[in-house]
Amino acid sequence: MALAVTNLKAPLLRRCLTAALLMPLALSAQPLPELYHAALAIDPAVLGAQAEVRAAEERLFQARAGFGPTAVAAASKSETDYSEAPSYDMRSFEAKQANVQITQPLFRGTLFASLDSAKAQLEQAQAKLDQINAEAIQRLVEACFDVLKARDALIFAEAQQAATAEQLAAAQRSFKIGTAPIIDVREAEAKADTVAAQVDAASYDLDLRKQVLAEIVGYDVPGLAERGLDGRRLPSIDSAALLGWLTDALVQSPQLRQARQAMSAAEAEVLRARMGHAPTADLTYTYTRSNETGSLTSTYPRRGDSSAVGIVINMPLFASGATQSKVRETIALQDKAQNDIDAARRGITLGVRQGFSVTLSSISQARGLETAAHSAEVAVRANRRGYDVGMKVNTDVLDSLSRLFEVRLNLSRARYDAWLSFVKLKGLSGQLEEADLVEIDSLLMAVEPQPDDLTFGRKSNRKREGGQ
What we know:
This protein is an alpha+beta fold. The chain has 11 helices and 6 strands.
């Protein structure tokens, strides 16, 4: 009786010890927000978008500077040799001049259009940066989940390998004592070889997924593989909330914001092109200082200062049709921008509908697989009891175990897919932020060992053989 009690407590003790060993590893793993910042620091797309924002900020500064005054300084020096008939005596003199001109625009219609265009381009660049940041979050979450799914696949493959090894050993013992035919041994060997190949494939796939994550982040993330998704929590989404998601997407979607700002910039460019026909008026002030040792008509030196204030008006008259051609070009680009808005709106609407359906489907699949996993566990216990009393053979127990491992693996994948599709849905609707990474990181906890009370144990095998 004491031995039986010890055996009953052993699985629980092993699970507690394993969880205690894995907990420090999970706690030492970097949280997802830290990995996200590390990924942003080396992501070429993010760095390029940030540079584009800085360039747009400078264009806006330049557009505002167009309203302010400009100052130009100029200096000149000339030396002249002059001879005049009839004596043709050579006479040399020089002239020095320095002037400063300040111009203040009074009316330039293109300046207002340039300012509006620069503002729209800055908003467009910021929307693009928001989109790329959201895409970076999605890439990171997908890469992390791929690692965890590959890790789960390897765990279940190794568990199945252990079960097939025990089944093969049981079949060999039964064959030696004459209670099982050789075909049972051959079937067990074939199954064991198949599962061994699956273990190798899962191990290689896990290494590949880790390399992909390291490429995104910039370094290896060993602690991630010791964490797993909390299966008790799934995305909270109302099946009747599609209209709300669509409304938010049409307002906050980065893609649609970019298209709208491109339209605003195109409208400003049309106005700018049309203002090419309008006159301009500038207020000018000029200060000049001159120093001459002589001139063509005088041999006396001359020095003086002068200043002038005036208004310069320019009226465009004819540019060989270039101005009107520029207007037609900008109108065509405006039509393109409008079509881009329509295409973006259509794409966002379709993407949100699909993402919403995929998210609901993944959640429903995960919940359904939870029930299927429970049923598979009941089936394994039933087959094992049938094997103990002689009503089932090794193959029946192994098949039920294979189905259980497959259901558990599919359940694990469905949970990851549900969260990943939810993240993509938030990204499409413009609601994905770094705070969502914090929430997802809170779902990752230390990996719990798989329950070992459903494996094909040697105790059952020995009981079957002893009974026979």
